[in-house]
Amino acid sequence: MAQTNTPGNEGAWAALSGEPPAALFPTLSPQGLALWRRMCQHPQAPLFRNQSGPRLSAAAQQACRWRQVLWRHAPLPPPGLPGRRPWWLHAWLARRWGHIPAWAGLAPRPLPWPQMPTHQRADLSADLARHVWATHPRAAQEPLICFSTSGATGHPLKVPSLPSVAADYRAFHQRALAHFGIHLRAGAGQVGVVLAGFQQRCFTYASVNPLQGDCGVVKLNLAPHEWRQPEDRAAYLDALAPELISGDPVSLAELAQLPLQHRPRALLSTSMALSQGLRQHLEARLACPVLDLYSMNEAGPMAVWHPAEQAWQPLQPGLFIEIVDERGQALPEGELGEITLTGGFNPLLPLLRYRTGDHARWVRRPSGWMLADLHGRSPVRFVTTQGQWLNNIELTHLLQRHPLRRWAVHQASSGALHLRLDPLPSGPTLQGIEQGLRHLLGPWPLHTSALTADDKVRQYTRDET
After folding, report:
1. Which H, E and C letters describe the chain, residue by residue?
2. Gene3D superfamilies given for it (predicted)?
3. For residue range 268-299, what is the model confidence (pLDDT) as tens digits?
4. What pTM did the predictor assign?
């Protein structure tokens, strides 16, 4: 679904007008309209700051349905071991090669695979347009969506996407849920999913999903200041009774603190590494499976954690995963290396041997080939001088407002902060950044320097106490 930012209290606006904007919901059914009103006008609804609505034509919706059926059931590619490649790789490269300037600049036609270089986030961040298929046919039929992401390596990036790509996430979520014996049932008049954040500021909206009978989709912020009363959070969620709740470990941990009576069929944890202890706590508290998804904005959901197999099950039939060494050579079974991706389901941003910065090893399990010992991104909390904890995304909101290529923030066990910036600004810009950091965390000792580390720098770190 396309998303359109609008300022102000959208919940209050909806209650006054009683009607969603026709341009945002051109195909809304009567059942969908009734549900939208119920989600927005509920007396305990949160502050909705934005608008989002289905932006796909009937033909595009049907194409999504066909793709999602295929992706839910198609076999996965072979593991990216030395000499092993998916059957579709050569044709996939040939079709895209001349349309991606960064690839075409390597050679007139696709290179032999052993000579194919790897790419990394720094390449995309430095010149994104050279890695985008800007003339893809779907780009002319759908409005462009750009997702801003900072990532673990500290290279800010806007990921170009389409409404159909956002809709296609559903196929891989369904594939992950099927591994746990869960098949989606929510339809007209019901809420399919609540996307829960826990931030100072958060993109929030209420919408419907036409690919699932106009069931409800709500993105909300669990931070108490976004609600009339803090106790409204549990009451509203109980009233919506969503089939699924999705969030990151920080927001799901907050969810577990609420006196929620509703039991969703599953929780989906994304964006950050989920500890085993928190997963077990969430499952016991909400009496449902918790799916830990390995995902990133550049590639979407890539794998799901299988507790019984103690490994990660890949999810995308069109995503070829290699484990490579520092020279970009594919490693054999059992050897730890960097997760590197080729393919993907975003037609505007096909990936070619894209280094993720995360590490794992290929292993064989009873269910097939899986990824083990995955070292991914972990949530980092910073402590204020008042002893309160702050999600690292709050620092992202501060720093991404400035023209920085990269940044890294480290907090010592004493509370002292080391801020590294690339480029290192001077004058009022640097003073504004430092003042903003002190406003968030308090007057800790602060040292600022230039960031000169290589591409694998971790954006947020903190000493354990």
Report:
1. CEEEECCCCHHHHHHHHCCCCCCCCCCCCHHHHHHHHHHHHCCCCCCCCEEEECCCCHHHHHHHHHHHHHHHHCCCCCCECCCCCCCCHHHHHHHHHHHCHHHHCCCCCCCCHHHCCCEEHHHHHHCHHHHCCCCCHHHHHCCCEEEEECCCCCCCEEEEECHHHHHHHHHHHHHHHHCCCCCCCCCCCCEEEEEEECCCCCCCEEEEEHHHCCEEEEEEECCHHHCCCCCHHHHHHHHHCCCEEEECHHHHHHHCCCCCCCCCCEEEECCCCCCHHHHHHHHHHHCCCEEEEEEECCCEEEEEEECCCCEEEECCCCEEEEEECCCCCECCCCCCEEEEEEECCCCCCCEEEEEEEEEEEEEEECCEEEEEEEECCCCCEEECCCCCEEEHHHHHHHHCCCCCCEEEEEECCCCCEEEEEECCCCHHHHHHHHHHHHHHHCCCCEEEEECCCCCCCCCEEECCC
2. N-terminal domain of ligase-like
3. 998 776 777 888 889 999 999 999 999 998 99
4. 0.80
